[in-house]
């Protein structure tokens, strides 16, 4: 890392999934796991579910990311609060896009950003930001088509594990349809839900309750964080899984997903892609003395 004693940051959130945004327009910052954990620490740092580094795509370390630079000049370098690197963050894309526009780094209503899970299209609709999250798939498609499920999830305090479906949104998700009689609000998500078979790279776990037609409520335990108040990729996975269980290969209508931190819209797009839409808020700006972290 270049010798930096101070770091500028912006605090933002999307449906209360909150992030520390750190601009690194000169690509000088070595955002390692330790610095990420210290920034995201809610007691000794700024605090957040994740840290987003704003860096020119052309300066990214991974060749596969640099290859997107022609279309998407800015790379969302996303890390979870525990310091682990994640491929994608749906709520993060909106906060990242709002930051790019506020700083004049992007000026149009529509533009593209680079993520580890590929290019994502951004569209501003007034206060709402819509992200084309790209293609999704069911990693165990054959099994899912035969049984509807491919995994089991056990949560502390509940005897039997629940059936679940794996959904790949660029990052891994395991979606549980809560059985009748289980209270979504009563789940203990302080402990990591146990998923079988054990996902090789870990997983985010979503718990879903149907509220009405094309309308669900969800809680999530995020890989690398714990329970969060929202997860954009998780919201898409939950809507896609629920419509799959209802017998639809692709959702035919918009889904409304309620999370503890607000409400998001999920829309199927052509070519097996999916769009996530919702708010993005930039709530504070500041300077961190790195020696005090
Ligand atoms: N909150 C994010 C997802 C962040 C990454 C996730 N914890 C993972 O490790 O895959 C979202 O809004 O999608």
TrEMBL record:
<feature type="binding site">
    <location>
        <position position="171"/>
    </location>
    <ligand>
        <name>substrate</name>
    </ligand>
</feature>
<keyword id="KW-0457">Lysine biosynthesis</keyword>
<feature type="active site">
    <location>
        <position position="89"/>
    </location>
</feature>
<feature type="binding site">
    <location>
        <position position="17"/>
    </location>
    <ligand>
        <name>substrate</name>
    </ligand>
</feature>
<feature type="active site" description="Proton donor">
    <location>
        <position position="89"/>
    </location>
</feature>
<dbReference type="InterPro" id="IPR001653">
    <property type="entry name" value="DAP_epimerase_DapF"/>
</dbReference>
<feature type="binding site">
    <location>
        <position position="80"/>
    </location>
    <ligand>
        <name>substrate</name>
    </ligand>
</feature>
<dbReference type="GO" id="GO:0005829">
    <property type="term" value="C:cytosol"/>
</dbReference>
<feature type="binding site">
    <location>
        <begin position="90"/>
        <end position="91"/>
    </location>
    <ligand>
        <name>substrate</name>
    </ligand>
</feature>
<feature type="binding site">
    <location>
        <position position="204"/>
    </location>
    <ligand>
        <name>substrate</name>
    </ligand>
</feature>
<feature type="binding site">
    <location>
        <begin position="222"/>
        <end position="223"/>
    </location>
    <ligand>
        <name>substrate</name>
    </ligand>
</feature>
<keyword id="KW-0028">Amino-acid biosynthesis</keyword>
<feature type="binding site">
    <location>
        <begin position="232"/>
        <end position="233"/>
    </location>
    <ligand>
        <name>substrate</name>
    </ligand>
</feature>
<comment type="subunit">
    <text>Homodimer.</text>
</comment>
<feature type="site" description="Could be important to modulate the pK values of the two catalytic cysteine residues">
    <location>
        <position position="173"/>
    </location>
</feature>
<comment type="function">
    <text>Catalyzes the stereoinversion of LL-2,6-diaminopimelate (L,L-DAP) to meso-diaminopimelate (meso-DAP), a precursor of L-lysine and an essential component of the bacterial peptidoglycan.</text>
</comment>
<dbReference type="GO" id="GO:0008837">
    <property type="term" value="F:diaminopimelate epimerase activity"/>
</dbReference>
<dbReference type="InterPro" id="IPR018510">
    <property type="entry name" value="DAP_epimerase_AS"/>
</dbReference>
<comment type="similarity">
    <text>Belongs to the diaminopimelate epimerase family.</text>
</comment>
<dbReference type="GO" id="GO:0009089">
    <property type="term" value="P:lysine biosynthetic process via diaminopimelate"/>
</dbReference>
<feature type="active site" description="Proton acceptor">
    <location>
        <position position="231"/>
    </location>
</feature>
<dbReference type="Pfam" id="PF01678">
    <property type="entry name" value="DAP_epimerase"/>
</dbReference>
<keyword id="KW-0413">Isomerase</keyword>
<comment type="pathway">
    <text>Amino-acid biosynthesis; L-lysine biosynthesis via DAP pathway; DL-2,6-diaminopimelate from LL-2,6-diaminopimelate: step 1/1.</text>
</comment>
<feature type="site" description="Could be important to modulate the pK values of the two catalytic cysteine residues">
    <location>
        <position position="222"/>
    </location>
</feature>
<keyword id="KW-0963">Cytoplasm</keyword>
<protein>
    <recommendedName>
        <fullName>Diaminopimelate epimerase</fullName>
        <ecNumber>5.1.1.7</ecNumber>
    </recommendedName>
</protein>
């Amino acid at each position: 890392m270049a010798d930096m004693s101070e770091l500028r940051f912006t605090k933002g959130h999307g449906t209360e999934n909150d992030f520390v945004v750190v601009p690194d327009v000169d690509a000088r910052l070595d955002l390692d796991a330790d610095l990420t954990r210290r920034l995201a620490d809610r007691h000794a740092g700024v605090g957040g579910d994740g840290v987003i580094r704003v860096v020119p795509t052309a300066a990214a370390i991974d060749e596969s990311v640099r290859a997107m630079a022609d279309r998407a000049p800015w790379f969302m370098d996303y890390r979870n609060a525990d310091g682990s690197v994640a491929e994608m963050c749906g709520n993060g894309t909106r906060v990242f896009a709002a930051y790019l526009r506020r700083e004049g780094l992007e000026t149009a209503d529509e533009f593209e950003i680079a993520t580890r899970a590929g290019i994502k299209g951004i569209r501003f609709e007034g206060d709402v930001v819509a992200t084309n999250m790209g293609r999704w798939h069911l990693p165990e498609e054959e099994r899912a088509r035969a049984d509807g499920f491919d995994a089991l999830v056990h949560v502390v305090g509940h005897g039997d594990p629940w059936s679940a479906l794996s959904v790949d949104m660029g990052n891994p998700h395991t979606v549980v349809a809560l059985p009748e009689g289980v209270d979504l609000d009563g789940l203990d998500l302080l402990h990591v839900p146990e998923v079988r078979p054990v996902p090789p790279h870990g997983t985010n776990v979503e718990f879903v309750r149907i509220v009405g037609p094309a309308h669900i409520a969800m809680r999530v335990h995020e890989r690398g964080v714990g329970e969060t108040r929202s997860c954009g990729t998780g919201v898409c996975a939950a809507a896609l899984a629920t419509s799959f269980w209802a017998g639809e290969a692709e959702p035919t209508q918009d889904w409304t997903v309620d999370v503890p931190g607000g409400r998001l819209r999920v829309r199927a797009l052509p070519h097996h892609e999916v769009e996530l839409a919702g708010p993005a808020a930039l709530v504070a700006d500041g300077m961190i003395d790195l020696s005090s972290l």
